[in-house]
Amino acid sequence: MRTLAIGPRLLVLHEGSVTGVGADAVVTAANQHLAGGGGVDGAVHRAAGPRLLEACRALPAGPEGVRCPTGEARLTPGFALAPWVIHAVGPVWSASRARTCAALLDGALAMAFRLADEAGARHVVAPAVSTGVYGYPLPDAARVSVAAAVRGLQRAHAIERITFALLGETALRAFEAALAACEVGPAGGE
Asked: What is the CATH number of the domain that holds 57?
């Protein structure tokens, strides 16, 4: 585990699932329809229980059933998992649209952290959004994600800790490299 101090707040890297961290707000890598799915979103829906999907379906849908556009996030109760689940919709990776993808990933995470802070969450856990089936390269996603978390902690009123729960050594190493390169500087940890 690596930790970065942002004033009195902490950014933590943890190897494991978002469902096993025990935070006030759990960020999930959602699709635009907030319809559940596989990967981390499937694990979050299973851990939260069937009422999470009902809460997602209760959110207003726009054209083509989109409840959350790419680059944004939505907050729902977390039921059996946590007080809140925040559904962040990251981009599907495209090398020809790398800057746009970075802006969309940053936007989804920035909104997720803002929603968590506004809800009063003290501890937020997030996965490596868009790096699974959406194909975002881990080193690039890690840099964007860590930067968004640092800004989120710098602006936070309620949040005391953001934890990235990362599945596997490769993801953990990519986020460790992004954390080490962060201008704020590492606080230590093991």
From this structure: 3.40.220.10
Choice among 24, 41, 106, 140 that is catalytic: 41
- Domain of 41? 2-189
DSSP class of residue 122 equals S
Q: What is the DSSP string of 60-118?
A: ---GGG-SS-TT-EEEEE-TTS-SEEEEE-PPPP-GGGHHHHHHHHHHHHHHHHHHHHH
Q: Is 140 a catalytic residue?
A: no
Closest CA to 152 of 105, 104, 99, 116: 116
pLDDT of residue 184: 59
pTM equals: 0.94
User: How many CA atoms does the CB half-sphere of 23 hold within 13 Å?
Assistant: 33
Q: 108-129: per-residue pLDDT in tens? A: 999 999 999 999 999 999 999 9
Of 58, 62, 63, 52, which is closest to residue 30 (Cα–Cα)?
Answer: 52
Give the count of domains, the chain.
1
**Cβ–Cβ contacts within 10 Å for residue 34, how many?**
26
CA dist., res. 45 & res. 36, Å (int) = 6
**Integer CA distances (angstroms), 64 to 34, 37, 59, 60, in order:** 12, 18, 14, 12
- Using the predicted structure, report yes or no on whether residue 190 has a pLDDT greater than 50: no
Compute how many other C-beta atoms are within 10 angstroms of the C-beta atom of residue 133: 11
